[in-house]
Amino acid sequence: MKRYIYITPEDFEEAERNGVKYTTLRQRVYQYGWDIDRAVSTPPRKMRSRKDQIERAEANGISKLTFDSRIYRGWDEETAATKLLIDDEEMREVSREANRKFSDDIYVKCQENGVSPYLLSKRVRLGWSKEKAATTTPEEGRAQGREKLRRNNRRIKV
User: Fold this and answer.
1) In which domain, by residue range, is 62 found?
2) Widest CA span of the chain, in angstroms?
3) Are 77 and 53 in contact, with CB atoms under 8 Å apart?
4) HSE on the CB side for 94, CA within 13 Å?
5) pLDDT tier for residue 123 given thresholds of 50, 70 and 90
6) Are 62 and 37 in contact (CB under 8 A)?
7) Is the domain of 110 the same as that of 79?
8) Is the domain of 56 the same as that of 32?
């Protein structure tokens, strides 16, 4: 049966033998909801010191906060300490490239056919293929729309 309420002096002694401090034991039981046997028997995690890597990062102009956030996001220590920060303009460019919906060749085709980026995105949202949206001139698109409207109106009148 698991115990959750009262930590006995024997529990504190056993925890001390396992390397668990008094405050850690109380915190595990009363704040984290661990059962007493688990809280006593589980040794505390060993935290690795990254002091040398942090010093190396600061020598490269990378703050401790940036270094820690990179580690948290899954970077390895070497890269987190050595990869230099990029300026705001470069960050905007990287972000812009990552969030682009259309490739450069699509935009070139749009310019050749007089299709604005807004019209391109609107057409794609309406279900057009990217290729057709970029190569159909606005005049052709209007003509196709008028023809479709005429066909629909004929069906309604009959």
Assistant:
1) 51-85
2) 94
3) yes
4) 7
5) very high
6) no
7) no
8) no
Tens digits of residue pLDDT in 40-56: 999 998 877 788 999 99
d(CA 51, CA 48): 9
Verify that 147 and 111 share a domain, yes or no.
yes
Q: Note whether 30 and 67 are same-domain residues.
A: no
Q: Whole-angstrom Cα distance, residue 145 to residue 136?
A: 12
Cα–Cα distance for residue pair 58/102, rounded to 1 Å? 39
With the C-alpha atoms ordered 63, 66, 71, 77, is the resulting torsion angle positive or negative?
negative
- What percent of the chain lies above the pLDDT cut of 90? 59
Say how far apart CA 90 and CA 96 lie, in whole Å. Answer: 10
Both 102 and 146 in a single domain? yes
Domain total in the chain:
3
- 10 Å CB burial of residue 47 (0-12, 13-18, 19+) is exposed
Instruction: Specify if 128 maps to a domain.
Output: yes
